[in-house]
Amino acid sequence: MRAVVFAAPATPVEVVDVGHADPRTGEARVHLTAAGVCHSEAHPVRGDGEVPTPLGSGPGGSGVVTAVGPAALAFAVGCAAGGSGICP
Prior knowledge:
- The chain is mostly beta strands.
- Helices cover 6% and strands 32% of the residues.
- The protein has one helix at 42-46; strands at residues 2-6, 14-17, 28-34, 55-56, 62-68, 80-82.
């Protein structure tokens, strides 16, 4: 799995390979086919304020469910899914 990661202010973001765990109770893994980067993510890159790092970029993603954890009743493998949020 790849992610766009912000590591420190005033440094370029990087596309890196990251591992992933199996979904936990109530969770689903989604293979993203599209993701957006919002303007608020420019602030930590410029050093405006403090955020925990590394920071995974790209809130507003959508894709296809590839795995589900126990009790993930709202998800099924193969279904379309989307969400939003910034991932530390």
